[in-house]
Amino acid sequence: MTTFGAVSTTVTDSADNPLLVATFEGIKLGKLGSPGTVHKFTTRTSFHTQENKPQAALSCNTMPSLTPDSELELLFSPHVIPAEVQAQLGSDLHVSFCRISLCFD
Amino acid sequence: MRPLSKTDLSRSHLSVLRVLTSTPDLTEQQYAQAFDTMRSCPNTYYTLVIISRETDTIVGVGSVFLEQKFTRNLGRVGHIEDIAVDKSMQGHKLGLRIIQALTGISESVGCYKTILNCNDENIRETHLFFVFGMFN
Fold this sequence. Notes:
The complex is a heterodimer. Chain A is built from one helix and four strands; from the N terminus they run E-E-E-H-E. Chain A is mostly beta strands. Chain A has one domain. A four-stranded mixed sheet of chain A has the order 2-1-4-3, with no helix packed on it. Chain A is flat and about 60 Å long. Chain B has one domain: 3-Layer(aba) Sandwich (Aminopeptidase). Helices cover 34% and strands 25% of the residues of chain B. Chain B has five helices and five strands; from the N terminus they run βααββαβαβα. Chain B has a five-stranded mixed sheet. Chain B starts with a strand and ends with a helix. Chains A and B meet through helix 1 of A and strand 1, helix 2, strand 2 and helix 4 of B.
């Protein structure tokens, strides 16, 4: 089973006032070995709009990516963690978050 | 999965532990001090975390600490403690993976046995783990 996180979109005017906020949250279920298979997808969306303007710039900010072990002060050497457990973990953990901001000139 | 880091306070470490039990907030200084205390006892404290690659936050934690004995020819015992998985990630066998990794560490450093300690509320899950390997 794969869990898909959330996408949140905010549209602002030139003064950075929020004109539209849309949040999508969903769960994607897939069989092991075919994680792309979508069995169920649900969305929860909310909008806040005002009178306004055309489109312009698009920027996409993703959540911070994984900090490498080499940049961290660790409690002990990672080499003592059994490799076979690490390998089993890999396909089980998928969490995706993306935040997108649309800016109108 | 990796060892605990000194800066994991900012990666929701305490939030995940709150799934398990009362865990009041700590300042960065208090957290770092506790981390340094553990690290000052070499080959004793092993705390693992599972990190979401995309968000760089902790979704699962667990610890094993090693007890030095006078018996068993100065043997050591591993005590597994504080297994916790974020509610949003339960059901993915992350708790099982953490326990497997901690047991592997305990065995690799020569412990003659490993004990999993848990509270009354988690006895059912612990029993399922040992009988069926179904721990979340």
